[in-house]
User: Fold these one by one.
Assistant:
Number 1:
Amino acid sequence: MDRIRIKGGRPLEGRIPISGAKNAALPLMIASLLTGETLELRNVPRLADVGLLLRILGNHGVDHTVTGKRPGQTSETGQTILLDASSVIDTRAPYELVSRMRASFWVIAPLIARFGEASVSLPGGCAIGTRPVDLLIMALERLGVSIEIESGYVQAKAPKGLKGAEIVFPKVTVSGTHVALMAATLADGETVIENAAREPEVVDLADCLNKMGARVSGAGTSRIVIQGVSRLRGATHTVMPDRIETGTYAMAVAMTGGDVLLEGARPEYLQSALDILSEVGVDIQANNEGIRVRRNGAKLRSVDVTTDPFPGFPTDLQAQFMALMTRADGTSRIRETIFENRFMHVQELARFGAHIRLDGDAALVEGVETLTGAPVMATDLRASVSLVIAGLAAEGETEIHRVYHLDRGFEALEAKLSRCGAEIERLRAA
Ligand SMILES: CC(=O)N[C@H]1[C@@H](OP(=O)(O)OP(=O)(O)OC[C@H]2O[C@@H](n3ccc(=O)[nH]c3=O)[C@H](O)[C@@H]2O)O[C@H](CO)[C@@H](O)[C@@H]1O
Ligand SMILES: C=C(OP(=O)(O)O)C(=O)O
């Protein structure tokens, strides 16, 4: 298995191009199943999750073409993928594929909406909590889908098509909102989603669906209204920039010091995290090229954080922020409210000499003067990048094992960081 080796202690200086968002690209690719015409997606990041989803879609009979680079694109700033679901032959999504990536379960929505049946294995994904799919099933049932769970598969049937309904989510769920939204586009009549997720990735999906002929309004608010249509057509859509990648590199610069322009980043997608970074003592300036992040040698201040659905502080930046707080002045209390088991990075950060104590759903991080490089193990996607952030600031050498987690969600990580002066390299498995 590949490893990543980092020699810490160098400030980051330069420019980092922000890739298309993994968490927007995945539902957009899945939405291609809603139409028999071609969906052209631009700025799709080159990531393991994208490759796996192409295989899953291919298994249903979706053809895809990856086109060459566009002018101005570098090898780490996106690809264009044409998806053609005109000849879907299989509405079954097997365990072998779905168990490897959580979002692949969402194919259930376009399959049931367009073909009236689907059989999808219960999902797997990052080990950050139990992550049930009860709310996704509730939403589909509200739309008239009959569901049975047999031998680990969700068997969905709606031979007469879907019927618009009111769907009230008892808690905010991104996956539930994506699934309800996609399914409702082809339902008969009006669907109202109450307490919908307001994440920018939901808005990106709704924008693309509208280009495909759907009638969705209110995305980005907690009430989304969908007027069902009988069919959707092909469209061209550009994937939004990745707000989690943006926040991750902003925290890396905060950690090492330096001056980096995050090219193409959009501040409105992560304002709560940028506000926290300002409180910590980082200089953040948005301009028409992106977001410039600077920190001189001044000590980082410790700040308390609680994760929340958008527009709150994202859970997907919690581990990275914890890495940053390991070197702040004082103690920071970081509370995780979205996933019950998202503290796997704590024991790995301790290997660098960090002082972190768990207290229920919170971690108390007492800043230390120096971190020391160590061998560490990536446990999930965002946890693994928190180890990269710690390694960049640690004295000496760090080696990160199980980097396949990183490859799920960070395009060209080593190239982007080393161009800004980091000493980071991938040691390929023999
Ligand atoms: C591919 C993708 O976009 N993944 C993101 C998505 O995950 P995902 O869409 O899986 O996260 P959700 O917003 O659905 O989950 C939020 C909470 O609701 C719970 N829940 C969810 C569905 C359900 O049927 N029942 C239930 O109880 C979950 O266990 C969790 O505690 O949003 C999360 C929250 O911003 C992010 O951390 C993930 O990176
Ligand atoms: C948790 C994540 O992904 P997934 O929902 O696919 O597990 C993530 O992107 O941080």
Note: The chain has two domains: 3-16+242-427, 24-238.
Number 2:
Amino acid sequence: MLRIAVPNKGTLSETAVQMLHEAGYATRRDSKELIVTDARNDVEFFYLRPRDIATYVGSGALDIGVTGRDLLLDSHSPALEVEALDFGGSTFRFAGPAGRFSSLDDLNGVRVATSYDTLVGDFLERNGVTAELVRLDGAVESAVRLGVADAVADVVSTGTTLRNQGLEIFGPVILESTGVLIAAREGIAGFETFQRRLQGVMVARRYVLIDYDLPAELLEKATAVTPGLESPTVSPLADTGWLAVRAMVPRKDMNNVMDELYEIGARAILVSPIHAARI
Ligand SMILES: Nc1ncnc2c1ncn2[C@@H]1O[C@H](COP(=O)(O)OP(=O)(O)OP(=O)(O)O)[C@@H](O)[C@H]1O
Ligand SMILES: O=P(O)(O)OC[C@H]1O[C@H](OP(=O)(O)OP(=O)(O)O)[C@H](O)[C@@H]1O
Ligand SMILES: [Mg+2]
């Protein structure tokens, strides 16, 4: 039975669990449930703190996990990052009081608060900077105002939390992070099926199906606009001068694609969602 670690709290949890649900797996019914056995799919899910997941997977106690790249690197776990997922994207940055710092070198000799002291320590060391790291559990943006640090290093998404504390980003990007699928090792039995199911959910979210009718002589032009994954499906209409065309297009592009197809001469252009996919 495949043993999978899932975040039980925090930013990654809800989206990760929703993704498992869409991929056809059993999920917990209430937030106190820590283990869910999905016998039909031969998988067992362990709901764990996001920060601990890389440790469980890296030790081999669990086979696979969903966590953040920043948490994986901060843990120094030997777990392998196998795939970037479509959620939990953030940037890891230094920030300080407006105008106080301008470059990484300005951090020499100052106190930097962070919940990711290993990640930040490694970065500073690689760059030859010596700072005093102040390890905090969270809400590190308050550390400067409260006087326990001179600067912070933390996850930035919209930047609202920093702004509200009068802090400004400076220096290089420490890390571009995202939700990731991690594995204890290569070649775990059942891993590929699990991975394909998650990929299927991501594809179903990212793409839509487009159908349209087209005068036959315009097929080449229309194929250039909707090349599909392999190539579009083309079927005859009862009127021999016309074709019906179907292809996948990125959801974010669908309105531009519809406009372009209409201008070329396509009609009856319809878009529908994809509920599930195996690519
Ligand atoms: N605002 C955000 N937007 C996107 N990803 C985020 C955000 N905040 C955190 N993350 C990502 O989520 C992961 C875990 O962070 P999160 O803060 O949710 O966990 P936690 O700190 O353990 O939980 P909690 O904050 O509830 O104590 C990290 O990979 C981080 O990069
Ligand atoms: O750039 P923003 O959109 O403002 O988001 C970034 C904030 O979100 C996370 O905090 P979280 O709510 O997880 O609290 P924590 O710091 O206690 O973990 C992160 O640690 C930042 O503080
Ligand atoms: Mg947090």
Note: Residues 2-89+178-189 form a domain with the D-Maltodextrin-Binding Protein; domain 2 fold (CATH 3.40.190.10).
